[in-house]
Each structure stands twice: as structure tokens, then as C-alpha cells.
Amino acid sequence: MPTAITELSLSELEELVCSYGEAKFRARQLARGIYLSQALGFAELADLPKSLREKLSRNFWFESLDLVTKSVSSDRLTEKLLFQLKDGHTIETVVMYYPASATGRRRCTLCLSTQVGCAIGCPFCATGRQGFERNLNSSEIIDQVLFNARRLAGQTDGTKITNIVFMGMGEPLANYQAVWQAIERLNASWGFALGSRHFTISTIGLVPRIKQLSKEKLQVGLAISLHASDNALRDQLVPINKTYPLEKLLPVCQEYVNLTGRRISFEYILFEGINDSLVQARSLAHLIAGLNCHVNLIVANKTGCSEYHSPSQDSVLAFEQELKRLRIICTIRQGRGLDIDAGCGQLRSRQDAKIKQKTENLKLKNVANK
Q1: Number of other CB atoms surrounding residue 161 within 10 Å
Q2: Which CATH number fits domain 64-203: 3.20.20.70, 3.30.750.24, 3.20.20.240, 3.40.50.2000?
Q3: Which of these, 152, 81, 140, lies nearest to 116 by C-alpha position?
Q4: Predicted local distance difference test score (pLDDT) of residue 301
């Protein structure tokens, strides 16, 4: 069974072209065509001999995913893409556009998936309710980026991918090796050449993997999905907290800051009547006091779970002001793509529901015809 060409590192590409009887430098030409020129297929790699392109086409996929459907928000600033992988599984990628920077180019952030489903099981999360099916490999992560880079290359406004966040389906640090391989290739000068500080990994709090990340050479951003400031509530919202409670998580966050010199981010989704009181704001401020950090306050999305609702705007603002009063740096993250259910796992859930309904209808039709 073929593999995607983006599964290979530069040294593996060099071994490959040499095994085909070609000079070693052909590997960098191949990589340049894939990552920087955003070619649409092996046939477009004009720098390479035709015989090499034909061998590559017979033995490798140029990309590992196919677009199933796309949803676009009414303001045109958010897109959610549903991809099908070669084994039939589906994943999501979210594309977010921002105003032009000083260079005049419109900025673009990609939110990538790292797993098919998720094993963590947070009750408020659409992906968590789907369960876990498998990890993505590095090419399936990389190809989410390259698919969108090729799309943007065809536009006339100069929009480029400026940031990549691993905040889509799955727990990135539970698929550490593939995620890190993807980052290395997307960062490499021979690869996509995106600066390391333009990557952010979001984790629910896998303590051993945070320790591992703090020792890596590339300085990527780290965001911790916190959502509660005491173990009892966090056990409910984030089941992995029973394994890595706050008294284990906070020290490793401090260690990360000490070793990397980088500020850490805490994601805090606000749920009405659950974790949005001023008492809980004070508890959160006490928990992270003295840590070089920033809190992203996120208003809960509607994910079809009746227990978790968005708080009122007054409650959100009061929570923010209380944190600021207690000298905690925080920001209310603006909602994106609410009209297209751009929250993690929602498009996949809708697609799966449609397929299930079609299957049920077909069964009923077959029964009626007997």
C-alpha cells in the first residue's frame, strides 16, 4: 500500500532518490516542489526527471487526504473543512482569516487535527463524545497545511499561512511523535519554513509529555486546557485530571516556563453556572499567581450537550474584570464560525449523522421492498 510522500524526512527522501539511481540533490528539489512551490502533483515537479516523477507516482501518494465538504461562516473569516483519509476515516481542519499585517498580507491561522476522535472524553466536547479511533500520522497532519497552502496560492490577495495551532480533533501530546515530526518538517528550511514561534500546541495536561516538550530545541507555544481551578470540578470537565491533577500539572507548567523562558497560555472555557462565578475567578487567580502566563477566556460553543451552556456576556465580562483586578493577564477569545458550528468535531458529527440516517433509510427501504 502506498504512503504519502510527506511522511518522509529529508534524509529519507535522499535515500529514496538515491535508491532510484538519482543524485542526492534531487531530494531537496522534490521537497521544494512539495512544500514551497505548492505543486498539485508529482507531474508538476518540472525540476525532476520524468522517470523519477513516474516512479514517485507509482509508489507514493502526493497527499493523504481528500476534501469531503467545506463550510464558510457568514463573515467569510472562518472555514471548516472535512477531509477523508485513505482508510475512510474523517477529520476536520479550521481556517481562520485575520486583518492584514504591516506587510499588507492578510493573516491566516490553521487549526489542525491530530487524531481521529479523542480518548480524553471531555463531556462538553463533540470530538470527545465520538470516542477514539486512531492517531494521525505525520503526513496526515502536514497535508492539512499543504492543502490549504495550495488553495491560498491560487488567491490574488497575498494571504499566507502565518500560524498553526494544534487545537482540532484529538489530544496532540497523546500523538507526540507524529505531531513533532510534522512540526519539524513544517519548520525546516527545506520544508514549509514556518518559524517555530508560529506553532502552538494545546493539551489537556499530559504531564510527562509537557516535560518532554519543554526540552525540545524548537520553541513552540504551549496552551493548557484548564477549565477549572479545583480538582473536584476539573475531574468532571477533564477526566484526565484524575491521572494528572492540578498539584502535578501546575509544577510542570512552571518547569516549562523556567526551561523555555516562554509564557504559557491557559484555556478556560466558561460554562454558565458551572465555572463562571467570581469565586471561581478568584480561585483561578490564586492557582496561577506568580506564573508567567496568559489566560484565554472562551465562551462555550453549542455542541449539542444540554448540560453545558454559554454564560451571559455580563458574566463573561465580570469574570474577566475580576482576573484583571487580581493582576492576571487575560483575554476574551472572540468566537469564530459559530454559525457553521466550527467547534471541534461538530462538522464530523453532522456528517456521520447524515451517513447514519442514509443507512437507516436504505435499510427501511429494503425491508419495505421484501
Answers
A1: 20
A2: 3.20.20.70
A3: 140
A4: 81
Does 44 qualify as catalytic in the annotation?
no
Contacts of 78 (CB under 8 A, 6+ apart): 72, 94, 95, 96, 97, 336, 337, 340, 342
* Amino acid at residue number 261: G
Measured CA to CA, the distance from residue 352 to residue 345 in angstroms comes to: 10
Give the N- to C-terminal CA distance of the chain in Å, as an integer.
40
> Cell numbers 493548557 correspond to what residue?
224
Closest CA to 139 of 45, 36, 63, 31: 63
CATH fold of 217-333 reads TIM Barrel (3.20.20)
Give the SS3 label for residue 185: helix
111 is catalytic: no
Look at residue 359 in the predicted model and tell me its pLDDT.
43
Which cell numbers hold the place of 226? 484548564
Distance (Å, whole) CA 141 – CA 93 = 10
> pTM of whole model > 0.70?
yes
Express each pLDDT in 142-166 by its tens digit. Answer: 999 999 999 998 777 778 999 999 9
Task: Report yes or no: 234 and 120 within 8 Å, Cβ to Cβ.
Answer: no
pLDDT tens sequence across 211-241? 999 999 999 999 999 999 999 999 999 999 9
Tally of CA atoms within 13 A in the half-sphere of 61 that contains its CB? 15
Spatial contact of 351 and 69, defined as CB atoms under 8 Å apart: yes
- CA 54 – CA 285 distance, rounded (Å): 60
Span(s) in the chain for CATH 1.10.150.530: 3-61
The CB-side HSE value for 254 (13 A sphere, CA atoms) comes to 11
Which residue in the list 14, 63, 79, 92 is annotated as catalytic?
92
* Residues 83, 144: Cα–Cα separation, whole Å: 9
DSSP at 34: I
Determine the Cα–Cα distance for residues 15 and 251; give it in Å rounded to an integer. 43
pLDDT tens digits for 306-345?
A: 789 999 999 999 999 999 999 999 999 877 666 656 455 4
